[in-house]
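Hi, here's the filled form for the chain we discussed.

Project: internal
Contact: R.S.
Residues: 831
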Amino acid sequence: MKLSDNDQNQVVNIVNTIIEASEHFLELTKEKKYTESLYIFSSIIEGITVVQNIINTDDQLKDNLNTYQYKITDCIKSISSTLEKNELIKVTETLQFVFLPTLRSWKKELLASLPNIKPNENITIGVYENTMNPIDAYPDKRIEALVNEAQKSKINIFFFASKDVDLNNKQIHADFFENNQRKKSIFPFPDVIHNIFPKSIYQQSLVERKLRKQIPFTSFVFGDKFNLPKTLVKNRKFAELLAPFKVVNEEYIIHNFLRDNDKAVIKPIRGARGENIYFVQKKGDRYRVTERKNTVIMNKENFSNLIQEKILPNNYIVQKYINARTKNDEPFDFRAHMQKNGEGKWQITKIYPRTGSSNSIQIDLIKGGKLRNTEEFLIHEFGEKEGKDLDNKMKKLAMDLSFHIDKLHGLAIDEMGLDIAIDVNKRFWLHEANIGPQTFAHENERAANVVAYSKYLAKNRIFHTNQYNDRNLLKNQFNSTNSKLEYLKSDEKLKIGILGKPNEIDNFVLSTAYIAKYEDVYLFYFSPNDVDYEEMLIRGKFYENSSWVEKVVSYPDVIYDRLKSTNKNNNIYEEFQNIPIMNEIYDSYLNSLDIYEHLASANLLEDYLLPFRKITKAKELISFIDQYIETTVKPITKSSSKHPYYIEKLKALEYLVIENGNEEIYNKLTLEHLLKELLKNNQYFVTKKRAYHNDNKFLKVQLIKGLNNDWEIVNIYPVIIPEPSNGIEFASDFNSALKLTSVDSGKLEKELKDVSTKVSETLNSKYEHLSELELYFYLDSNHQLKISKVNLNQLNTDYNELHVAKKVLECAKSINNRKIKTHNKETQTLL
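And the returned structure, exactly as it came back:
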């Protein structure tokens, strides 16, 4: 058998989709829907062609299934001929009595011929969520319903998160229930994964993407409030159900929309549970704005403020208001909860009306209790004849919509909630379709379909996918399968990758590459766009023969991070979570107050720190300013978007405030107001302002952990930092910087080394993954050494690049050696 496991799974997946599509094709021909029949028939032919091409790559498989190739080809020719003549009755007969039976026999023979596709009667379902165990993420009743249904169906079920997965040993440390007690155990990989809160490929964890290659997943995302309507309009069918809307990226869009529609709904594109939705009615120069049951009358200025503060900073659409109200003037709509069943077919799990308050235009969420009957509700509102007719039409619409939306998303969707409205003219509207609809009142019905559909996927080894799980969604991402680049030959040499922005190779990177040649290690530079997440390969830049050459290389052993992103949702860091990043920045590394407090806890360093205090109230801060006269108010967390404030007391009730080069005089009252506003949104701490001998001149000490994991001083040199600095600094010579002072340079250098060593030891005890340290000192007016700033894992590599590069490589080797020792120790423990 030449076919890989992935190819075998892909073939079975496509064949199942072909059969499912053919069953729908049959329904369309029965309903005499000619145009739609042509469209789906074309898709079926494409699927069969793909399967046949894969089968033809394996001679044995081709011989086993050769008879079916001719039978299926004859069927296609017959259907094509009768479709051209628009003879749908004959097409229906061929589909029902020849084509579909042939496809099912073809699938049976195919499964028997594929060695790695075996039916499994003892099905295990793994319920998964990336960041937390589903038991903690889902309501108790939903978990209870899933467990009970699995037991009733004699199916094993357990619950896990990404952190519980051991990819190497294909095991999961999961939670399960036994005699109603939550317990933990180690399980082999499940037969199918029911993934709650599904995400697109760009948001999926490394663990999820690897599991998806091996195990069928039940759930996939589809378009949000913007993308789904866009897709429906593009494909035309059911586009008439959509209320007109505009994406709000400028204020005038809302005003123009209200000029043409006196009522509108402003709602978030990715909102849920009816939150942050505004209903607006314009009357002259006034705006009636309702959120939930709260209504406010606004003038144009206040309405504009609402748009600027609440709408524009977020992703919103403005949509035409649909007038759907009961006889009692209550707003109403219908929620259709749709799911695929144990045969992979759509069904209505529950459809029910929802109403709101008569003094509102928003529907109340169902939070429990018995659901109202749809037919009875419609008969009450529209009379018996029209009520029953509308009920039948709505149920048919829900089924047709579900299949159509599913078809537009690769037939991969497992459930959806459709919010359908009927206006005063008895016209149907689709408010929205969403994944994971609420099921407070029918958890058992939902669970029955989840378990049955999961079993269906597991038994048939169906691996679905759709455009939101397509690698092309990773825009501008390296695709090794299409690459003609040379592959780096694999050997035992250490591989170090420098991660940075595209095309930012500087003297430091060049110096590191130069030294790597002599250290006999591989070193390459890459950016996030150079990573092929699917194949776990990188397009790396190697320095060879005085030029940079691109090659395809496997993931490195150690990474040196120059990207310096603190966004841990960034896929690049999650991708490399099992690879040591020698200078990775954690959120705690940016907390200046934490660093100060930890240094202050070391008695030997107290004399080198300025007085400081965390502030929570404006009056506390003013008291500190009154005591120390000249102060600096700094954000607790370092940020390029937040500037420090220099505040100096000039007179009894007069203060000078300097922020980003701008100066302003405040009295005590206006200063207190400024500080209250400052503290309202951000956290700050205050220090006494440094009184230095030479303005803007600092002494910088850089340290890196060496081969033996001991701190080594790499550089000591003066820098000049202008105000405001904007990150700019100028290096100068150590002795020349001190020649105008009476300071003994030798004595000062020794003190710098002693204090820096003490600082590194103190911080090393708190920050586990610290590998780089950068300290800024200055001399006060008494020529006493003081600490001005501390950077953790943020080394500036623009000075003495060759020496820094050498130490960086030594640190990388040390980290890799420790990784190997840890791995060997864990292996011995297992043995």
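Let me know if anything looks off before we file it.
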